[in-house]
Amino acid sequence: MELGISSYTFPWAFGIQGYPQPKNPLNAIRLLEKAESLGVNVVQICDNFPLHKMEDGALNDLSKIARDMGITIEVGTRGVEPENLLTYLKIARKLNAKLLRTVFEAPGEKPGLNKLTAQIKTILPLFEKEGVYIALENYEQFKSKELALLVRRLNCSYVGVCLDTVNSFGALESLEEVVNRLAAFTINLHLKDFDIVRVRYKMGFKVVGRPLGEGKLNVDWLFKVLKRKGRTPNVIVELWIPFLGSIEKTILKEEEWAIRSIEYLKRRLLE
């Protein structure tokens, strides 16, 4: 189990569509530098910084810099279309990445499990040959039992779950049931804390992000469940920071939350 950060640890610094953009957006190399300053050695670069848009030379430079820093890169994308997965397999090979995280992407429709199984099965032999794992992230499109069934159907040691601690609220599932269903298949962990608060006029709730250790997430319980299932995935810290009225103020808060979260997690793992 190694600690890491992601392009979703600093989503505002990379830029979020529909909001003011940072004057100097974060990039992959500066994300590595942030990992080094935080004292973590895994960086997951996901779809909010699409690696397929980088030139081969830039990918090679990124790989060398990560190697010199002693940082492991994991790659991320959206969708399970074979062509896209194979594109990211090539990128993973260039970056010496051994894990590809993806989420299900089908605007306007929910793809059936049979179709998803067939799509992923066609490219699995190539992932096995390269030693690259596919981590399917729980998302609101599917219940956790459906994701567990998909992984069972694929029946391949190179396919597992990227367990996210918040996403499945969108599928009306509690954290406990999601973890209990998916822990045994978990090969990557997206750890983000949260709170559930009433709106000001009291009629309704909203799920909001918090720095690790300052919300409702029981990190100790989560790690115990994973350990009981024999799982020690890399832990990738993600953050849900609200927009604070200006992009500069929001990015500063993002940086502060990242530092607090990593410090908290290091203390918990040392106890």
What are the defining features of this structure?
alpha/beta, TIM Barrel, eight-stranded parallel β-barrel, 271 residues, globular, two-stranded antiparallel ribbon, single chain
* CATH architecture heading: Alpha-Beta Barrel
Instruction: Please give the largest β-sheet.
Output: 8 strands, parallel, barrel
CATH superfamily annotation: Divalent-metal-dependent TIM barrel enzymes
> What is the structural class?
alpha/beta
Arithmetic mean of pLDDT: 95
Biggest sheet, strands in spatial order? 1-2-3-4-5-6-7-10
Number of structural domains: 1
Could you list the spans in which at least 5 consecutive residues all have pLDDT below 50? none
Top CATH class: Alpha Beta
**Over all CA atoms, what is the radius of gyration?**
18 Å
How would you portray this structure in words?
The strands form 2 sheets. This protein has an 8-stranded parallel beta barrel with strand order 1-2-3-4-5-6-7-10, surrounded by 6 helices. Strands 8-9 form a two-stranded antiparallel sheet. The protein has 9 helices and 10 strands. The protein has one domain (3-270): Divalent-metal-dependent TIM barrel enzymes (TIM Barrel). With 271 residues, it is an alpha/beta fold. α7 links the parallel β6 (159-164) and β7 (186-191). α5 (113-130) crosses α6 (144-154) and α6 runs parallel beside α7. The protein has helices at residues 11-14, 28-38, 56-69, 82-94, 113-130, 144-154, 175-182, 219-228, 247-270; strands at residues 3-6, 42-45, 72-78, 99-103, 133-137, 159-164, 186-191, 193-198, 205-210, 234-237. Helix content is 42%, strand content 20%. It is globular.
